[in-house]
Amino acid sequence: MKKIILIFGFLSFLIISCATPYLQSSTNVSKVKKKYDKILIFANSKDKTTRLQFENQMVQDFAAQGIKAFSSMAVIQTNSFSKQLNEKDVEELRAKLVADGYTGVIITNLLSKDQYSDVVSGGTSTAYVPMRYGRFGRYYGAYPVNYWEPDQVQIGTEYTLESCLYDITESDKDNLQWVGRFQVKDPSSLTGSIEKYSKELVDQLLLENIAQ
């Protein structure tokens, strides 16, 4: 059985926005599915609490699918995988991880943080107002009242993230296996966002790239 390490560049502000899916698109670059039975999860966040919360959520979601996963907190201490390690450091880390039996890396990066404005079209709605008869207050009918609702402009913040899976056993050629693009609008709940992001990512990886 192969083993895999999942390293995530995660963000402390990644949070839930209604019921809209975060995952916008994904591509199985390798065009194959591989079986992995050991996953190391790394969340790239300056906030160690957020990092641990995200990693533990991923561990639980993979475990629910019968796949072993482990938090990276005791394995990789650096808080920033991409910014604090130079090319030599990355290669040394890759070699060490391969020697320890890991074969893959997933890195999630923030691509952009943008302000957006959506125009929600107005319209008409009808309410039926009951009519009273005499002092006994009995309803004997209803007449329609139409209401007009003007257009509304919704303004908020949208975060675009990208998660990439690499096969770290292939050091001398392109080793990108899978890539997914996610968008999060209007942050509100850190816990809810972590749960939702983790579930969508795990589900899509199992669907397209990771065999059980």
From TrEMBL:
This is DUF4136 domain-containing protein. Keywords: Signal. It comes from Aequorivita aurantiaca. Residues 1-21 form the signal peptide. It comes from the Bacteria.
